[in-house]
Write a structure and sequence with these properties.
The protein is of the alpha/beta class. It has five helices and seven strands. A seven-stranded mixed β-sheet has the order 1-7-2-3-6-5-4.
Length: 132
């Protein structure tokens, strides 16, 4: 639930996000990714500007989401600089340098709890019906 320091993902929020991040979110929603969250690190000393996090219900869906994000980025000539976890697919990481995509199964996401571990980032919650 958003707090004073967190804001919901709205049309106004999307205007402050790079097109590539919005494109990644759309690709996640296209493959029915759930619980999409953006962690904004632009006001911190973290190595990237954003984490874009979502869940897929099982490893096949996690792979499908990862494939779709990669395909959407490729249309803009953007390729991940690093990919981790694709073969196992309970947590796939796609590093696009300015932002990092994390796609989890629900159990793995709950276990690692990135939103808690990286609490220094401003959490922008994404409503599946309002993705840009």
């Amino acid at each position: 639930m958003p707090t004073k320091q967190n804001e919901p993902f709205t049309a106004n929020t999307t205007t402050h996000l790079p097109e590539s991040v919005r494109r990644a979110v759309k690709a996640m929603h296209d493959k029915k990714g759930t619980d999409v969250v953006i962690l904004d690190f632009r006001e911190t000393e973290v190595f990237t500007d954003f984490f874009v996090v979502c869940s897929g219900q099982h490893v096949r869906q996690v792979k499908a989401i990862a494939d779709n994000v990669t395909a959407h980025m490729r249309t803009q000539a953007i390729k991940p600089t690093h990919v981790e976890g694709y073969n196992r697919a309970d947590w796939v990481l796609l590093d696009f340098f300015d932002f990092v995509v994390h796609i989890f199964t629900p159990e793995t996401r709950s276990f690692y709890s990135l939103e808690r571990l990286w609490a220094s980032g401003k959490c922008l919650y994404v409503d599946n019906d309002k993705a840009g």
